[in-house]
Amino acid sequence: MADAGVAIAWEQVRRNLRAAAGAKLFDQWIKPAALAVGTDGECVRLTLPSRFMANYVRSHYAERLLLEFRQALPGVRTLVIDTGAALPERVLVEDAKPASARGAAPLPVAAPLAAPAAAAMPARDRFAFDARFTFDRFVTDASNRVAANAARALAAPGVPQFSPLYLHGGTGQGKTHLLHATGHAFHAAHPQATALYMPAERFMFEFVKAMRARDTFSFKERLRGVDLLLIDDLQFIAGKETTQEEFFHTVNECMTAGKRLVIAADRSPQLLDGVEPRLVSRLGAGLVVDIKAPDYALRHAILSARLAEMPHLDVPADVIELLAMRITANIRELEGALNRLVAYGQLVGEAITMDFALQTLGELLRGAQKRVTIDEIQKAVSAHYEVKQLDLVSERRAVAIARPRQIAMYLAKKLTTRSLPEIGRKFGNRDHSTVIHAVRRIEDLRGKDSEIDGAVRNLMRQLEG
């Protein structure tokens, strides 16, 4: 059971957060949280009913919760937030300093619980991997399958076939997810080994800090002493000559010692401007893998996978299709849109519908939407059905012409901002009621005829791709 002192502190924390966040937000997110069995004076454990709620509270309230607990109980050092059905996944750990040296503001680091064998490592280095980013939650297709398989292979037991592994791709394409997943898998396969994830910006900051303190030996020993080193966003050291010098020697040392090294950046080694040629050569000596932008099928699969983790939610298929079609920039933005939609629905107590999605994500969807013209739609439909574009605007009523015309009108309503009368004029000066009939007819047929539904889906992907 939880310590009595922690239970009393928890009540005080709840009162403070209710006053700060307001009754509505408090009741939605904090009130369902409960002290878990095993909570003591140093580690506070909170559980929530679902993974989604646990993730949301971690993202939005973890720092405030830890600060409130420390104000009530100065001895509290860590906070675990998870679901009641699973082991703790994520901890907020204060920097490893004596109690007398710690200030009031916390220094949170996201990390899973440390294995006993890693107790000698600094608290900030104890397998600091995000619990959300595992291989099980990484959805693959042709655009990222090689990268995912390479990361799995590098984390597996035995002598690695290659090192370093260099992953590159645009922002939000899953590079950071794969780095953390590699760390989790490596920890599972090698419980006694040590691993460290570090963004390149933090590498630079800590190295400069070590130079100023004239203690670069400790910095080098910490990085080169781990069995797996993962460096993210390498492009940020471009033009930093001193940092590149140290990073070059770190890479050299890891490769010479047979250590595992994974590096991620937004471009290939050869395209890193302001990076020394010898470092580029070292980075290219291992396996270089490109992660391409996700296509519609992968975006849809990612959304479906995330919703499978929230079985209590009902998100219509057309809303998922809308998000997958419109938000094409990167996976991070796509998942963020889904989380925002779900959170807003729970906050206002409304069902998630197409109208609700358009109202909630209007600006995001409009900003992400490719400008599709009716002329482009008519060309795509005529090519797909092998009819002349002029036939779509003619008076011909044969089914071979009328059905493609209705599909083109339906797509014009879905993919453009044109009004019904404007769409009608683009199809041979037809009345707006004709357009309404076409839209309703195609919507009805999509639910009955898989061939028409497949054709509409393919045309949408083609037009918005």
UniProtKB/TrEMBL annotation:
One of its GO terms (cellular component) is plasma membrane. Residues 161-295 form the AAA+ ATPase domain. One of its GO terms (biological process) is DNA replication initiation. ATP binds at G172, G174, K175, T176. CDD domains: AAA (cd00009), Bac_DnaA_C (cd06571). Residues 346-465 are annotated as: Domain IV, binds dsDNA. SMART domains: AAA, Bac_DnaA_C. Residues 373-442 form the Chromosomal replication initiator DnaA C-terminal domain. It comes from the Bacteria. The keyword ATP-binding applies. InterPro entries: AAA+_ATPase, Chromosome_initiator_DnaA, Chromosome_initiator_DnaA-like, Chromosome_initiator_DnaA_CS, DnaA_C, DnaA_dom, DnaA_N_dom, DnaA_N_sf. Keywords: ATP-binding, Cytoplasm, DNA replication, DNA-binding, Lipid-binding, Nucleotide-binding. One of its GO terms (molecular function) is lipid binding. Residues 1-100 are annotated as: Domain I, interacts with DnaA modulators. It is found in: Cytoplasm. Plays an essential role in the initiation and regulation of chromosomal replication. ATP-DnaA binds to the origin of replication (oriC) to initiate formation of the DNA replication initiation complex once per cell cycle. Binds the DnaA box (a 9 base pair repeat at the origin) and separates the double-stranded (ds)DNA. Forms a right-handed helical filament on oriC DNA; dsDNA binds to the exterior of the filament while single-stranded (ss)DNA is stabiized in the filament's interior. Belongs to the DnaA family. Oligomerizes as a right-handed, spiral filament on DNA at oriC. Domain I is involved in oligomerization and binding regulators, domain II is flexibile and of varying length in different bacteria, domain III forms the AAA+ region, while domain IV binds dsDNA. PANTHER family: CHROMOSOMAL REPLICATION INITIATOR PROTEIN DNAA. This is Chromosomal replication initiator protein DnaA. It comes from Sphingomonas baiyangensis. The gene is dnaA.
